[in-house]
Every structure is written in C-alpha cells, then in structure tokens.
Amino acid sequence: MKLHCDITLPASKSESNRALMIAAYGGFAPDFRNLSDSGDTMVLAEALECMSFQHRAARGKESMLSKAIHKTQQGTSIINIADCGTAARFMATYLACHEGDWLLTGAERMKQRPIQPLVDALLALGADIQYVEKEGCLPLRIHGKALQGGKVKVDMTQSSQFASSLLLAAPLFPQGLEMELVGSPSSLPYLDMTIKMLCHFSAQVKRQDKLVVVRPKPYEKQYFTIESDWSAASYWYEMAAFSEECEVCLQGLGGPSTPSTGSGTANLQGDAIIAEWMTQLGVGTFVENDALVLRRIPFEKRPLRFDFSQHPDLYPTMAATCAGLGVTATFTGLDNLLFKESDRVRAMQTELAKLDSRPIRFCAHNDHRIVMALAPLSMLAGPVSFDHPEVVGKSYPTFWDDAEFLPVRQ
Q1: Which of 90, 110, 221, 404 can bridge 106 by disulfide, Cβ–Cβ 3.0-4.6 Å?
Q2: Is 313 a catalytic residue?
Q3: Checking DSSP bridges between strand 245-251 and strand 291-296, what pairing results, if any?
Q4: What is the pTM for the complete model shown?
C-alpha cells in the first residue's frame, strides 16, 4: 500500500491532564491552547468541574451542575472516574487536601489497578484515607483536609503517576515537599514532564536522581500550548513501516529534540523516542515546514532489543510492528504493563496469535492502545474487525476518521 496523508494528531492527554490539575490547584481558569478532547481528559475535567461547582454551592452559590453531584445520605460526595487511571491517581491527592468527605471510585478494571503506593505516601503526610473494598485499590473513602507537606517516600515501581500526583499538589503545601523515589522508578519521562510543567507555571522544583524537592510557592497563570501526542504518532510510524512507499505528514509535533511551537518548553514527551526506534524498522523522520514527515528508508532486518520501562505506551506499537515485519526482537521492562487498561503483554500475545487465521476478529481488551496498534496490521493481513473499536476515544477520538483507508470493518 502506498501511503500519502496529512494528519493533525490529537493533543497529548498526559500534558492536558497535568495542565488541568495545575489550573485547579492554582485557582485559575484552564485556558490552554490545544487541550485534549480525549475521553480520559474529559473525565478528569468533569471531576474537577463537579468539585468546583460543589464548593460554590457550599458558599451559597447553588447551580444546576452542583445538583448533579451524587451524594450519599451521610453527605459523602461520590467521584467516579470510570476507567481513567490518571484521573484516579491525580484526584486521590486533590481530594485528600480539599475539605470534604469523598468517595473516589471507578470502573471494575480501575478497581483492580494499584494505588497503594500513593495512598501510603498521602497517609505519611497526614491524609485521612480508607480502602472501601480491596486493600490497595479503589474505591477510596477520603476525608479531605489541609496537608502541610514535608518529607515522604514514594514507590514508583508500578507507576510514575503516584509521584506526579503528589508533585502537582506540592507547591501549595506550606512546608513544600521533599520526595524520595524508591523501588525501581518506571516511566521517568512522565515524571520529568510533570516537573517541567510545574516550572513553567512558576513552581520551584528540582530533581536530583531519586530526590525531588518542591519549595512552597503558588502557581502563576501562564500561557501554555499542549503538544500533539507522540504516543498517537507511534501508530502512524507503524503504518509507515507497513507501507510500500509513504509520505506521512504529522502536524503539531516539534522535532524529537526541538522546542515545541508556542509553549515555551522543550519537547516534554518521552515517547518521542519512537522516531529513533523506528529508524531500525525502516521509517525515517524529516522535519519540514514545522511538521514531521515520515518516509521509508532502507533497513537491515536483524534481531533488535527494546526496553519499555520508561516508555510503556509504546509496547503495543512496537510488538505489532515487529510481528508484522517478521523482525525478531527482545522486549524488556514489561512489568508495569500488567497494570494498564489491560494486561498488555498477554493481550498482544493473544491477538498477534490470530494473524494466521481468517477472518481476523481482534478483541479490544477494553484498551485503546491495543486496538490502535493492531489496526495497521490490516495493511498486511487484509480486512480485520474489532469487538469494540470505539475504545480509541480514550486517547485518540478521531483515529478511525484519520485512518479511514485501513481495511477495518466497523
């Protein structure tokens, strides 16, 4: 298949979610350019909006939206973040340091995903949190109150979001925060993204290896442009790798190591490493007129090795690409992939095993990244279908419109 297209990628939900939290903590309107319209970001925005309206109602400013917040007879406000892991981790800290009685819950899969390292850290800082069902998971009963900050240890083995959640609140702590990262830190580029965004909004933060120090200094409102999403770009790299010839123009991305237009910060996303990785699979990245152009380049088919400990969201893409091209690859750093929307290692093993069958009907495993990584394989295997193609809306709502040329039966 010859592939020639011009794609405007979705905004980064990782940056968008952090920007929303900074605005909420800073007490200013989330007026950002290119905010994500992904399902995850909408869930977080709605949760924060509900809290905002509830606080207005408590001050005697009743609104229709505040009536939509579900409360128990005991006066506990229920915040349901569905299957959004980022919202679960970020909201746990936000609720813990805002007065009120809260129940933070989510979908069944979300109730299986870990949150204990964050809860342990919050308890060490004086938070009042109890598990309602399974130890270490949602739902959480939270009695919100002012937290002072101080010294704390956070285990990042399962997710960097535990540390990011605390950092987002830290500038408002009267004592600031001195956070020691313990365990085997995963997804460090996401933690560094958080730190860079805090600094952009005038917080005073420094990380030296496994120690992060935040001084007490409130956020200041700043202009900020959300970058396009490098994780979403990875699926276009995969399609380029499967094409006979391609000219794929990706709009809205800075170069892998160049400044982003408008935000005043260097590229924040660790998943930009996909540009380097894909050169080993025959896709070159060229910067032209403020866009990135993907073209086929020669490559030698040889055994490869990739470490996903810092880039877990790229695993489905790379697994599908190597399988499609018949490239032998060794993958390491897969431990925390068990705790995503699905067990991504098992999910990809199960679905890639179907490539020798016809017709191919893939299972989505309720995981947006599994679907988007499998869909390009239709360029090689012929028409495929999915049981729940709509799950792509979690991070890339326009994926099927953008990739309408793929032989995928909806």
Answers
A1: 110
A2: yes
A3: antiparallel
A4: 0.93
